[in-house]
Automatic annotation (TrEMBL):
Record-annotated DUF3048 domain positions: 68-196, 226-333
Pfam families assigned to the protein according to its UniProt record, in alphabetical order: DUF3048, DUF3048_C
Protein name: DUF3048 domain-containing protein
Region Disordered: start-end pairs: 31-65
Species assigned in the record: Actinomadura fulvescens
Length: 344
């Protein structure tokens, strides 16, 4: 199981948060040396193998299909250079995570169905390893990681089907230059992870909208260098996405977007890792409790989120403590810093 310890630090005028990752052992801070960690177990307690009895409804989207399908998570570039992206519209859940430079990257989670192609596939970040344990031991597709993070990938409860291991599942395709032209075949990827965990309860609840809420036409989630907008379409009964003010369109055609949008406010600080330019990689704290805003059916609901540990799911409740139900269909989770935008 992955744990996070948080310590306040100050650099110049900016107060930042330093997250240190512990995987079966402990990891020293940025200025210290790493301590060895024990290997992770095959999966966290309560993981549901793909061969077990399926749930009554899919726990990721509330639907009735793909109830025994394995879980695949894919990191996808989310900058203008990578657009239009492939395969995002087929995901059950789409996470938006801050990365270096104030940009964002997507992590698309698939189970109920698979697209023909997904990408551009990009590298993993440390926050992924804190989000994924709630899915059991899923297959995880990405284009690589910085060297210092490789041992944590090996110890985490995921099947590593990165570009290094995926072979012919990955191809360079289209007119974009490297690194914006790497795509993968999800079916081929899953052939290399035959024991990947099937869908399990990750805390989401689907059903009729709760009482209350306030009508809204749009909402904009903000990071230092990126804005993701969500505009309600009564005709399509979903929220249509935009990227930095422009329509966010999938390569398959049509606007991207979900039936439910979760703005999850989570403390975002500085990890011990840096990119090739020396910028610190953000670390998003997705355990504990916090506030959220849930968009569904043309309304906004103030909510609270709770995740007691990394092998448990994230539950959402209304401010009066009742379950915050989602509209059946694709869910987007925008992980936004709780406070001012985090600039490392």
């Amino acid at each position: 199981m992955v744990q996070i310890a948080w310590n306040g630090i100050v650099r110049g005028r900016t107060a930042a948060v330093l997250g240190t990752l512990v995987l079966g052992g402990s990891l020293a801070g940025c200025s210290g040396s790493d301590k060895p960690a024990k290997s992770a177990s095959p999966g966290p307690p309560g993981a549901t193998p793909s061969t077990s009895s399926p749930p009554a409804a899919h726990p990721f989207n509330g639907g009735k299909t793909g109830l025994k399908n394995p879980v695949l998570a894919v990191k996808i570039e989310n900058t203008r250079s990578a657009m239009p992206q492939s395969g995002v519209s087929a995901a059950d859940i789409v996470y938006i995570e801050q990365v270096e430079g104030g940009e964002t990257r997507l992590m698309a989670v698939y189970s109920s169905k698979l697209p023909r192609r997904v990408g551009p596939v990009r590298s993993a970040r440390i926050s992924d390893l804190h989000i994924l344990p709630q899915f059991g031991k899923p297959a995880f597709a990405f284009s690589g990681v910085q060297g210092a993070m490789k041992k944590y990938i090996r110890r985490s409860p995921v099947y590593d089907i990165s570009q290094d291991n995926g072979g012919s599942s990955y191809v360079r395709w289209g007119p974009k230059p490297i690194p914006y032209n790497l795509y993968a075949d999800p079916k081929d990827l899953l052939k290399q992870a035959p024991k990947a965990t099937g869908p399990r309860d990750i805390g989401f609840r689907f059903g009729p909208a709760p009482e209350g809420g306030r009508p809204v036409k749009s909402f904009t989630a903000r990071w230092p260098a990126t804005r993701m907008g969500f505009t309600w379409s009564a005709k399509e009964k979903r929220w249509l996405t935009s990227y930095n003010g422009s329509p966010h369109v999938g390569r398959e055609g049509g606007r991207l977007g979900g039936r439910t949008i979760v703005i999850q406010y989570a403390k975002t600080g500085r990890s011990q890792f840096r990119d090739v330019l020396g910028a610190y990689t953000p670390l998003i704290k997705t355990t504990g409790t916090g506030r959220a805003l849930v968009l569904r059916d043309g309304k906004a609901y103030d909510a609270k989120w709770s995740r007691p540990s990394e092998d448990k799911g994230t539950t959402f409740t209304t401010t009066d403590g009742k379950p915050m139900t989602f509209a059946p269909g694709q869910v987007w989770v925008a992980l936004v810093n709780d406070g001012k935008p985090y600039i490392p």
